[in-house]
């Protein structure tokens, strides 16, 4: 059966999905995906909102995999999309293939720390002296549950497990005894192996970008589809970078101490080498966090600052590590081997590898000298949760050293194209002002074919754009915050449904929230961070007329169809923060090639982000709403036209009265509202499942 027949109004997909709507863009994308799978090479597809891109790659991809005995790997950025593909789209695809007489096997794999390790659980459950009574009850219940469970996924556990405890019972690849096909005998029934077995039999395997880029041994695949591909460069930069946190020192000390205690209680430390390792590890746990603080103090941090911040490392400091770290490495190399317990042996080896890796990272952070990598120290006020990650030596502030490459194209190309399999990348927003070329270069797919598909929605009749010309320049922070708050108070009562107010910085969000929190009446007002993002989103959807103030996360990947989101207020144009260490390094790097940082990076990034923010508004053919931009630079600066040309063509509104009239003529789509309520319940279920 051809792709066109699959997606035709009378085809098997239409017969399987009662509310199927034929969309030519979807069929074009599916045909391009199938052609790439058959011919090989790369394909980059920008598919506007409403094209139905998940089915456009899943259906041809699954058919290609099943009919040829192959495996398709699908990678998403967010867990929400990963689960949506698993729970909503792949069941439809499986039913369509069933109609064609084929059976589809599909599975999902997540990063290692999403899985329970029954071996670690069992060992910890034998040390009740380490835990509170309630934590011990959780461990014992989990041990009983694990005897009959067929998955180790954290989201499927019968208990909510606090992060601190979870870190000690999740699968840790460095300490895992079952790297081969069989779990070792002492692991008993390894639940991760159950998930892994399903993944190895799957014809469509859903993973995420972090796992895709990790060194984890994934089942080999014959083709790769990357959804939410616009996030791939940033995920890759994080993945190929490094971070030294106080937690790295603390965990080393904790694991070394646990091992030393076991050696001593088993009479295996006659020469005292484990006791010495434990002593050096304890010193590391004290010195490591203080070392990071010393670095921050040398780079401009002072106890009197209230905001998070960071500075590029200047590299002129003679020290590269706390003095106890080399001694800990030496001691771990000298402790008595072999250990009587094979797991202790593997933990001892892993600890040595970890210390060596930590020392290597520190040397690279301080001694490498390349413009292509940003290296910086970061400080941030400690929240309650962070405290256990930073140890007792730090109070008030946490400190981290970070490095990230500024160009990931070559490494991505090696990782994704190296195996020689077809690669499809897709997202609703990929173009950076001048077509898809820049994105393709950034992900190392310069030679890939490209396809840009407009949204099937009628933005001229569904959306309105209102740009206010009387808001001060955002560089006047106090004046700008006051003006934004005043405009929001004026706009919100005119909107019958829900409102997003999106910011580029937490600082501005907090200022505006202070100014409007007691002035918005008759509807809920929430701020990102007040609860988990999924909870916040489901509450927002169910409320129907709430106001939500958000930063990065809510600019992209958030789906609220219907009147529950009727207006998106975009505050300052979302240029990257040029004062941040990584942007300073990026500017220096661009300038070293004689390129303009603003034209080549800052402006395209801001345009793409503005498009993503705008894209939150219209999520279904029944939606209608307005985007308000509270940054008049878009009207007066030379680059303003670049932003305006990138937005979908829609009606322009020029006054508050016109905005009121736009909504007073609105007939709230019943269908949209129902979709919102259903979506709210869906998010709620996801949240419950995650617990
Ligand atoms: S094989 Fe690895 S994940 Fe499985 S129980 Fe053993 S140590 Fe844990």
What does this structure look like?
- By secondary structure, this protein is of the alpha/beta class.
- The chain folds into four domains: 136 residues, no CATH class; 74 residues, no CATH class; 167 residues, no CATH class; 232 residues, P-loop containing nucleotide triphosphate hydrolases (Rossmann fold, 3-Layer(aba) Sandwich), CATH 3.40.50.
- 49% of the residues lie in helices and 12% in strands.
- It contains 29 helices and 18 strands.
- The strands form three sheets. A seven-stranded parallel sheet has the order 3-4-2-5-10-1-11, with helices on both faces.
- The longest helix is centred in the middle third of the chain and has 26 residues.
- The protein is globular and about 85 Å long.
- The chain binds iron/sulfur cluster.
- Iron/sulfur cluster (SF4) binds next to helix 6 and helix 9.
Search tags:
12% strand; alpha/beta; seven-stranded parallel beta sheet; 691 residues; binds iron/sulfur cluster; 49% helix; 4 domains
CATH topology value of the largest domain: Rossmann fold
The CATH first-level class of the largest domain comes to: Alpha Beta
Number of helices: 29
- Distinct bound molecules: iron/sulfur cluster
Task: Please name the fourth-level CATH homologous superfamily of the largest domain.
Answer: P-loop containing nucleotide triphosphate hydrolases
Output the strand order for the largest sheet: 3-4-2-5-10-1-11
- Structural class, judged by helices and strands? alpha/beta
**Global Rg:** 27 Å
Would you tell me the overall average pLDDT? 87
- Uncertain segments are 668-675, 681-691
Main sheet overview: 7 strands, parallel
Helix content: 40-55%
The rounded distance between the terminal residues' Cα atoms is 42 Å
Q: How would you describe the shape?
A: globular
User: How many beta-strand elements?
Assistant: 18
CATH architecture of the largest domain: 3-Layer(aba) Sandwich
Number of domains: 4
Q: Which range does the strand content fall in? A: 5-15%
